[in-house]
Design goal:
Belongs to the COQ7 family. Its main location: mitochondrion. This protein is mainly α. It contains 9 helices and 4 strands, in the order H-H-H-E-E-H-H-H-H-E-E-H-H. Helix content is 70%, strand content 5%. A hairpin with a 6-residue loop joins strand 3 and strand 4. The protein binds fe (ii) ion (2 copies). One fe (ii) ion (FE2) binds next to helix 4, helix 5 and helix 8.
Amino acid sequence: MMMIRNSVQGTRRSFSVLSSLKATEAKSTEGKSSKNGKDVKYQNLSEAQKAYLSRAIRVDQAGELGADYIYAGQYFILANKYPHLKPVLKHMWDQEIHHHSTFNNYQLKNRVRPSLFTPMWKVGAFAMGAGTALISPRAAMACTEAVETVIGGHYNEQLRCLNSQFNLDSSDNTTVGQPEEIKALIANVAQFRDDELEHLNTALQHDSKLAVPYWLLTEGIKAICRVAIWSAERI
Ligand SMILES: [Fe+2]
Ligand SMILES: [Fe+2]
């Protein structure tokens, strides 16, 4: 993280990670923000900032794809057998589908290469969701608790970096601020972080802590999530 932060402070040049929005939106407001009703044009992102955004979009898309498939696996096993859990799981799954599709759009618009492990994330995530659900509903909730703990922390780290390292000088050097695209990304990440923490609460309310074997499940799944985040940022 420190390396990212240090490198992000490099020379500011073009704004291409978010600039490919231009390809699909003729009247892009990219690199602009509004101040007192006037459009403010900002200097371009540095290469380090662009690289950070690419990595962030890649890992977030892979993570939300994983979450989508984890809840699909849980729903597949538990929805009919435990009717009281059906709407609970469906609500969380629907939110993950929204997160996933939002980052699919970011990935397409910004031409960010998907993680090369994408097929593995799909199979592994579905197996993790279904596998823990087969142990018990509490084990599925322990899986949710572990995943959302790691993802909530990951999003918080990302928000700290986006908020502190993406304040750009305006083109005329009269002000400093964030372009609309950065503000929108921050708003999405903050909303998704809140949703993940709501899922974490739901898991706790559904006795995730009573799962057997709780420690093995949660610590094992947290370790898998951390390795997955590390890999999806890079590969
Ligand atoms: Fe999510
Ligand atoms: Fe979630």
